Amino acid sequence: MWKNNLRPKLTVQFYTQDKCFGPGVALLLSRVQEHHSLRAAAMSVGMAYSKAWTIMKHAEQELGMRLLNSTTGGKRGGGATLTLEGERLLADYTDYVNQLNAHSEALFQEKFSWLTE
Amino acid sequence: MWKNNLRPKLTVQFYTQDKCFGPGVALLLSRVQEHHSLRAAAMSVGMAYSKAWTIMKHAEQELGMRLLNSTTGGKRGGGATLTLEGERLLADYTDYVNQLNAHSEALFQEKFSWLTE
Protein backbone atom coordinates (compact mmCIF):
# COMPACT_ATOMS: atom_id res chain seq x y z
CA MET A 1 0.00 0.00 0.00
CA TRP A 2 1.00 3.59 -0.58
CA LYS A 3 2.14 5.61 2.36
CA ASN A 4 -0.83 7.72 3.49
CA ASN A 5 -2.82 6.19 0.62
CA LEU A 6 -1.12 8.62 -1.77
CA ARG A 7 -2.78 8.68 -5.18
CA PRO A 8 -3.06 10.90 -8.26
CA LYS A 9 -6.20 12.76 -9.25
CA LEU A 10 -6.72 14.25 -12.69
CA THR A 11 -9.01 17.06 -13.70
CA VAL A 12 -9.72 17.05 -17.42
CA GLN A 13 -10.93 20.26 -19.06
CA PHE A 14 -11.42 21.19 -22.69
CA TYR A 15 -10.32 24.66 -23.71
CA THR A 16 -10.87 26.84 -26.71
CA GLN A 17 -9.86 30.43 -25.95
CA ASP A 18 -11.36 29.69 -22.59
CA LYS A 19 -12.37 26.72 -20.45
CA CYS A 20 -15.48 25.33 -22.10
CA PHE A 21 -16.05 21.72 -21.03
CA GLY A 22 -15.08 19.71 -17.98
CA PRO A 23 -16.40 17.75 -15.01
CA GLY A 24 -18.99 20.41 -14.13
CA VAL A 25 -20.68 20.53 -17.55
CA ALA A 26 -20.42 16.73 -17.82
CA LEU A 27 -22.17 16.32 -14.47
CA LEU A 28 -24.93 18.73 -15.50
CA LEU A 29 -25.44 16.83 -18.77
CA SER A 30 -25.68 13.50 -16.98
CA ARG A 31 -28.22 14.99 -14.57
CA VAL A 32 -30.25 16.34 -17.48
CA GLN A 33 -30.32 12.79 -18.86
CA GLU A 34 -31.69 11.67 -15.53
CA HIS A 35 -34.14 14.49 -14.77
CA HIS A 36 -35.09 15.68 -18.30
CA SER A 37 -34.75 19.28 -17.14
CA LEU A 38 -31.84 21.69 -16.76
CA ARG A 39 -33.55 23.31 -13.79
CA ALA A 40 -33.85 19.96 -11.97
CA ALA A 41 -30.28 19.06 -13.02
CA ALA A 42 -28.94 22.31 -11.54
CA MET A 43 -30.91 21.79 -8.34
CA SER A 44 -29.59 18.23 -8.00
CA VAL A 45 -25.99 19.52 -7.88
CA GLY A 46 -26.80 22.55 -5.71
CA MET A 47 -26.23 25.05 -8.51
CA ALA A 48 -28.38 28.06 -9.35
CA TYR A 49 -30.36 27.52 -12.57
CA SER A 50 -29.03 30.79 -13.99
CA LYS A 51 -25.44 29.59 -13.49
CA ALA A 52 -26.17 26.19 -15.05
CA TRP A 53 -27.79 27.94 -18.02
CA THR A 54 -24.79 30.25 -18.47
CA ILE A 55 -22.29 27.36 -18.25
CA MET A 56 -24.26 25.36 -20.80
CA LYS A 57 -24.64 28.26 -23.24
CA HIS A 58 -20.93 29.05 -22.95
CA ALA A 59 -20.02 25.41 -23.67
CA GLU A 60 -22.36 25.31 -26.68
CA GLN A 61 -20.97 28.56 -28.04
CA GLU A 62 -17.32 27.55 -27.66
CA LEU A 63 -17.85 24.03 -29.02
CA GLY A 64 -20.01 25.31 -31.86
CA MET A 65 -22.77 22.78 -31.26
CA ARG A 66 -26.02 22.39 -29.36
CA LEU A 67 -25.79 20.11 -26.34
CA LEU A 68 -29.38 20.46 -25.12
CA ASN A 69 -32.76 20.43 -26.81
CA SER A 70 -35.24 22.53 -24.89
CA THR A 71 -38.83 21.43 -24.81
CA THR A 72 -41.13 24.27 -23.90
CA GLY A 73 -44.78 24.48 -22.90
CA GLY A 74 -47.16 21.82 -21.69
CA LYS A 75 -48.71 21.45 -18.26
CA ARG A 76 -45.40 20.93 -16.47
CA GLY A 77 -43.43 23.69 -18.18
CA GLY A 78 -40.25 23.30 -20.17
CA GLY A 79 -37.82 20.41 -20.02
CA ALA A 80 -34.57 19.49 -21.70
CA THR A 81 -32.96 16.50 -23.32
CA LEU A 82 -29.48 15.97 -24.71
CA THR A 83 -28.92 16.38 -28.42
CA LEU A 84 -27.25 13.47 -30.19
CA GLU A 85 -24.02 15.47 -30.17
CA GLY A 86 -24.47 16.18 -26.45
CA GLU A 87 -24.92 12.48 -25.75
CA ARG A 88 -21.87 11.58 -27.80
CA LEU A 89 -19.72 14.26 -26.19
CA LEU A 90 -20.73 13.16 -22.68
CA ALA A 91 -20.09 9.49 -23.48
CA ASP A 92 -16.74 10.17 -25.15
CA TYR A 93 -15.62 12.57 -22.40
CA THR A 94 -16.50 10.03 -19.72
CA ASP A 95 -14.63 7.30 -21.56
CA TYR A 96 -11.68 9.62 -22.17
CA VAL A 97 -11.44 10.56 -18.49
CA ASN A 98 -11.67 6.89 -17.47
CA GLN A 99 -8.85 5.95 -19.84
CA LEU A 100 -6.68 8.84 -18.65
CA ASN A 101 -7.31 7.89 -15.02
CA ALA A 102 -6.30 4.28 -15.68
CA HIS A 103 -3.13 5.44 -17.42
CA SER A 104 -2.28 7.96 -14.71
CA GLU A 105 -2.62 5.32 -11.99
CA ALA A 106 -0.44 2.79 -13.80
CA LEU A 107 2.23 5.42 -14.51
CA PHE A 108 2.03 6.68 -10.93
CA GLN A 109 2.82 3.23 -9.58
CA GLU A 110 5.71 2.95 -12.00
CA LYS A 111 7.25 6.34 -11.26
CA PHE A 112 6.52 6.94 -7.59
CA SER A 113 7.26 3.62 -5.93
CA TRP A 114 10.26 5.35 -4.27
CA LEU A 115 7.81 7.41 -2.18
CA THR A 116 6.96 4.26 -0.25
CA GLU A 117 10.49 2.95 0.22
CA MET B 1 -6.81 22.19 -37.14
CA TRP B 2 -9.35 21.77 -34.39
CA LYS B 3 -12.45 23.87 -34.55
CA ASN B 4 -11.90 26.84 -32.22
CA ASN B 5 -8.48 25.35 -31.38
CA LEU B 6 -10.18 22.91 -29.01
CA ARG B 7 -7.70 21.10 -26.80
CA PRO B 8 -7.55 19.17 -23.52
CA LYS B 9 -5.91 20.48 -20.37
CA LEU B 10 -5.05 18.26 -17.42
CA THR B 11 -4.56 19.25 -13.82
CA VAL B 12 -2.60 16.65 -11.88
CA GLN B 13 -2.91 16.60 -8.10
CA PHE B 14 -1.68 14.11 -5.53
CA TYR B 15 -4.04 13.30 -2.69
CA THR B 16 -3.71 11.58 0.64
CA GLN B 17 -6.77 12.28 2.79
CA ASP B 18 -6.54 15.70 1.28
CA LYS B 19 -4.96 17.45 -1.68
CA CYS B 20 -1.27 17.61 -0.88
CA PHE B 21 0.78 18.16 -4.06
CA GLY B 22 0.03 19.69 -7.44
CA PRO B 23 0.96 22.48 -9.84
CA GLY B 24 1.01 25.14 -7.09
CA VAL B 25 3.50 23.35 -4.83
CA ALA B 26 5.55 22.30 -7.84
CA LEU B 27 5.79 25.90 -9.02
CA LEU B 28 6.84 27.06 -5.56
CA LEU B 29 9.53 24.36 -5.41
CA SER B 30 10.90 25.35 -8.81
CA ARG B 31 11.00 29.00 -7.73
CA VAL B 32 12.84 28.02 -4.53
CA GLN B 33 15.42 26.29 -6.75
CA GLU B 34 15.78 29.56 -8.62
CA HIS B 35 15.67 32.04 -5.75
CA HIS B 36 17.06 29.96 -2.83
CA SER B 37 14.34 31.37 -0.60
CA LEU B 38 10.71 30.46 0.07
CA ARG B 39 9.91 34.11 0.68
CA ALA B 40 11.33 35.14 -2.71
CA ALA B 41 9.62 32.13 -4.33
CA ALA B 42 6.24 33.18 -2.89
CA MET B 43 6.74 36.76 -4.00
CA SER B 44 7.65 35.65 -7.53
CA VAL B 45 4.25 33.96 -7.92
CA GLY B 46 2.30 36.72 -6.15
CA MET B 47 1.55 34.58 -3.10
CA ALA B 48 1.76 35.66 0.54
CA TYR B 49 4.73 34.07 2.30
CA SER B 50 2.45 32.77 5.07
CA LYS B 51 0.31 30.95 2.50
CA ALA B 52 3.36 29.48 0.75
CA TRP B 53 4.71 28.31 4.10
CA THR B 54 1.38 26.68 5.02
CA ILE B 55 1.09 24.93 1.62
CA MET B 56 4.64 23.63 1.92
CA LYS B 57 4.22 22.38 5.50
CA HIS B 58 0.96 20.68 4.58
CA ALA B 59 2.62 18.92 1.63
CA GLU B 60 5.54 17.79 3.79
CA GLN B 61 3.21 16.51 6.49
CA GLU B 62 0.96 14.58 4.11
CA LEU B 63 3.85 13.14 2.09
CA GLY B 64 5.81 12.30 5.22
CA MET B 65 9.02 13.88 3.97
CA ARG B 66 10.88 17.17 4.04
CA LEU B 67 10.85 19.06 0.77
CA LEU B 68 12.81 22.12 1.89
CA ASN B 69 15.95 22.67 3.92
CA SER B 70 15.82 25.98 5.71
CA THR B 71 19.04 27.88 6.18
CA THR B 72 18.75 30.42 8.94
CA GLY B 73 20.86 33.33 10.08
CA GLY B 74 23.63 35.19 8.31
CA LYS B 75 23.66 38.74 7.10
CA ARG B 76 20.86 38.26 4.58
CA GLY B 77 18.49 36.26 6.79
CA GLY B 78 17.20 32.73 6.15
CA GLY B 79 17.06 30.97 2.82
CA ALA B 80 15.84 27.63 1.57
CA THR B 81 16.97 24.86 -0.73
CA LEU B 82 15.26 21.69 -1.87
CA THR B 83 16.04 18.46 -0.09
CA LEU B 84 17.13 15.55 -2.28
CA GLU B 85 13.62 14.13 -1.93
CA GLY B 86 12.13 17.50 -2.85
CA GLU B 87 14.28 17.65 -5.97
CA ARG B 88 13.35 14.12 -6.94
CA LEU B 89 9.65 14.71 -6.34
CA LEU B 90 9.65 17.90 -8.42
CA ALA B 91 11.56 16.22 -11.28
CA ASP B 92 9.37 13.11 -11.25
CA TYR B 93 6.14 15.13 -10.97
CA THR B 94 7.19 17.33 -13.91
CA ASP B 95 8.06 14.29 -16.00
CA TYR B 96 4.81 12.56 -14.98
CA VAL B 97 2.71 15.57 -15.98
CA ASN B 98 4.54 15.85 -19.31
CA GLN B 99 3.92 12.18 -20.07
CA LEU B 100 0.24 12.46 -19.12
CA ASN B 101 -0.15 15.56 -21.28
CA ALA B 102 1.38 13.80 -24.27
CA HIS B 103 -0.90 10.81 -23.75
CA SER B 104 -4.00 12.99 -23.29
CA GLU B 105 -3.30 14.90 -26.50
CA ALA B 106 -2.79 11.74 -28.56
CA LEU B 107 -5.94 10.15 -27.15
CA PHE B 108 -7.88 13.38 -27.67
CA GLN B 109 -7.03 13.40 -31.37
CA GLU B 110 -8.06 9.78 -31.61
CA LYS B 111 -11.39 10.12 -29.79
CA PHE B 112 -12.60 13.61 -30.68
CA SER B 113 -11.91 13.92 -34.39
CA TRP B 114 -15.70 13.90 -34.90
CA LEU B 115 -15.88 17.33 -33.22
CA THR B 116 -14.21 18.81 -36.30
CA GLU B 117 -16.28 17.01 -38.93
Structural class, judged by helices and strands of chain A? Answer: alpha+beta
Determine the number of helices of chain A (DSSP H or I, runs of at least 4 residues). 4
Give average pLDDT of chain A, whole number: 91
Give the helices and strands of chain A as they follow along the chain: EEHHHEEH
Biggest sheet of chain A: strands, sense, closure? 2 strands, antiparallel
Strand arrangement within the widest β-sheet of chain A reads: 1-2
Multimeric state? homodimer
The general outline of chain A is: elongated
Helix amount of chain A: 40-55%
Q: Point out poorly predicted stretches of chain A.
A: none
DSSP summary, beta strand count of chain A? 4
Distance between the termini of chain A: 11 Å
Task: Tell me the Rg of chain A in angstroms.
Answer: 18 Å
Q: How much beta of chain A, percentage-wise?
A: 15-25%
Q: Which two chains share the most extensive interface?
A: A-B, 36 and 36 residues
Overview of the structural elements:
Two copies of one chain form a homodimer. With 117 residues, the first copy, chain A, is of the alpha+beta class. Helices cover 54% and strands 17% of the residues of chain A. The first copy, chain A, is elongated, with a radius of gyration of 18 Å. In chain A, strand 1 and strand 2 (19-21) form a beta hairpin. The first copy, chain A, starts with 6 loop residues before the first strand and ends in a 6-residue tail after the last helix. In chain A, helix 1 (23-35) packs across helix 2 (38-44) and helix 2 (38-44) crosses helix 3. Chain A contains four helices and four strands, in the order ββαααββα. The model of chain A has no long low-confidence stretch (mean pLDDT 91). Chain A has helices at residues 23-35, 38-44, 49-63, 84-111, and strands spanning 7-15, 19-21, 68-71, 79-82. The first copy, chain A, has a two-stranded antiparallel ribbon with strand order 1-2. Chain A binds chain B through residues 3-17, 19-20, 62-65, 88-89, 92, 95-96, 99-100, 103-104, 107-108, 111-112, 114-115, and chain B through 3-17, 19-20, 62-65, 88-89, 92, 95-96, 99-100, 103-104, 107-108, 111-112, 114-115. Strand 1 of chain A pairs antiparallel with strand 1 (7-15) of chain B, so a sheet runs across the interface.
